Fold:
Amino acid sequence: MSEPKRIAVTGAAGQICYSMLFRIANGDIYGPDQSVSLQLLEITPALGLLEAVKMELDDCAFPLLHDVVCTDDAKVALKDVDAALFVGAKPRGPGMERKDLINDNGKIFSALGQTLNEVGNPECKVVVVGNPANTNAYILKANAPNMNPRNITALTRLDHNRAISQLAAKTGSRIGEINKMVIWGNHSTTQVPDITWATIGGKKATDAVDTAWAHDTFIPTVAKRGAAVIDARGSSSAASAANGVVDHMASWIQGTPEGDWVSMAVPSDGSYGIDEGLIYSFPVTCKNGEYTIIDDLTVTDTIKEKMLASQAELNEERDTVKALLS
Ligand code: NAX
Structure:
């Protein structure tokens, strides 16, 4: 077997990681023929809990898990990694405005970007999960000029999976029959889940549901699903978010199937008139470890208007953290 792939994970003692690390150690990102090393980062007070996670990883005796490092030093966690999953972030506290959260977490991501820049492998594949994920990825990218900017991405795969699940439930179809779902924009309530090109068993999804459902029920249900899970569970999505991260990385590394695509928030190349460099969710195909934005879809006027509103929100978030974009 080749050298292990090194994967850094931040916020490794948190909820999402408790579901995610075991999947990674099982080979779900790099596949069944590739061993992995985990370099886990936590804040100092959570190191005890992180050790407990390592004990459980050890107790699984995963054949593909080469070694596990637990640390509160980002230089150790991010050193020479092939992939970095930035999950750790502060949750929104009582009375906190979204702007406060953006600023607090922005500081975490500017510091991590600088460290990644210093010790990271320039081709390292990055996914940001900690919210506001797109803007945190934007901050990280701005602070890590040595890194390949194309490889700084954010997670909208959970939204993509939620959208597929909602369409399957509405039409009584199986998940595996649904292809070509799209999430445009920000991982927030301005995101634009879009079924224009989706197919169900090869037939157009738009023939199976009416436009009013697609616009007035489907879009807000997917966009507000995170809040619905919080209401039902008392805390935010964890296992499904972990699954989204694994799917995001596995698609990127192992490729997307012929005739389908996935949604990833990646630096815009100007497609669809979205400002270049903004971390925006697009449909992409993946092959040989590279993603390609599907840039030739004709979007409807209604969807375009929503796409621009999501872009406007991202621009506002970017302006809020201007001081962190060194
Ligand atoms: P938890 O609060 O359970 O875990 C976060 C962990 O991060 C904690 O253990 C904390 O000690 C650690 N941490 C905080 N600051 C850190 C730092 N500077 N370096 C390293 N570790 C640090 O949250 P969890 O439920 O795991 O969620 C993590 C993040 O994912 C949150 O920001 C959450 O909002 C975000 N989410 C993003 C989603 C997406 O689709 N993009 C969906 C799920 C989730 O809401």
